[in-house]
Design goal:
Strand order of the largest sheet: 3-2-1-4-7-6-8
Largest sheet: 7 strands, mixed
Strand content: 15-25%
Shape: globular
Number of helices: 7
Distance between the termini: 40 Å
Structural class: alpha/beta
Number of strands: 9
Number of domains: 1
CATH superfamily: Spore Coat Polysaccharide Biosynthesis Protein SpsA, Chain A
CATH class: Alpha Beta
CATH architecture: Alpha-Beta Complex
């Protein structure tokens, strides 16, 4: 969707409470802009942020640790992709908008299901094979169903005082009628170290989620996009670039063979 469109139907939203998160949001948006120069990006924040890299900057109605739901609820787009501020978009994500023409919502499953957060008990007796969805990359199509889900998601988070929103979303998806599509892991890689064991038979990562590397108390240069080499090291960054060079869906050549970085866990 071109930036000059006055009434875009597709776009990205980010949300930031506090100065540090606002800096991270701007850096994440600059990185997204490198991958998708013409995309539409809005920010919801309690900080004074120039539009600059954004197409719209909107004041938050509620300043708290989880403004995500407000950004989804107030999004002006028919099809919205929400991004956390600690994600690095490496590729055009337009195909997620295409998914949202057939499904209400989409995201990537949590992989660390035996971690403390992954073991949070369900309020609705949800089976383990229906894990939490990581909230760092979410696609949502505007409808009465999705608005109801987002409203209830936010209401329960406020009422319970929970410190994480993912268990609540899991329950709502299990008990509700929202048509949800599970994206493959490359659209929200939550452990970049796993990529050391990927060879060119695996799809290249589209989005890296580097929460452990990007913190609001040390957000870096607001005028700079995220630098992959600095954040994860040159060796891993080069491996990711090699994987992308072998993936035809991001412009690579499938004849380009890339071995795994690590031989500790053979891939057969």
């Amino acid at each position: 969707m071109a930036r000059e469109d006055t009434d875009p139907t597709e776009g990205f939203v980010l949300a930031a409470s506090g100065e540090g998160h606002a800096v991270l949001a701007q850096r994440a948006a600059r990185t997204l802009r490198e991958a998708m120069p013409e995309c539409v990006i809005d920010l919801f924040t309690d900080q004074n942020v120039d539009k600059d890299v954004f197409d719209g900057v909107f004041a938050l109605e509620r300043s708290w640790f989880r403004p995500k739901m407000e950004s989804l609820r107030r999004s002006r787009f028919e099809r919205t992709i929400y991004l956390d501020n600690d994600v690095i978009v490496l590729s055009d994500l337009s195909e997620i908008f295409q998914v949202l023409t057939r499904f209400d919502m989409t995201g990537v499953q949590m992989i660390r299901t035996n971690w403390k957060l992954g073991r949070v008990p369900s309020a609705s007796d949800v089976p383990p094979c229906f894990p939490q969805i990581n909230g760092g990359v979410l696609g949502i199509a505007s409808s009465a169903r999705t608005r109801s889900l987002v409203d209830e998601w936010e209401r329960r988070l406020i009422k319970t005082g929970a410190k994480n929103d993912q268990p609540i979303l899991r329950d709502l998806l299990w008990t509700g009628d929202v048509r949800f599509h599970v994206l493959p892991p490359q659209y929200n890689m939550m452990s970049h170290k796993l990529l050391a064991n990927w060879d060119s038979s695996f799809a290249a990562p589209r989005v890296l989620h580097l929460g452990a590397k990007l913190k609001a108390d040390d957000p870096g240069d607001v005028a700079s996009a995220y630098d992959l080499d600095t954040l994860i090291g040159r060796t891993m960054a080069e491996h990711i670039r090699d994987l992308r060079a072998a993936d035809p869906n991001v412009g690579g050549n499938p004849k380009h063979s890339v071995p795994p970085l690590s031989s500790a866990i053979p891939i057969s």
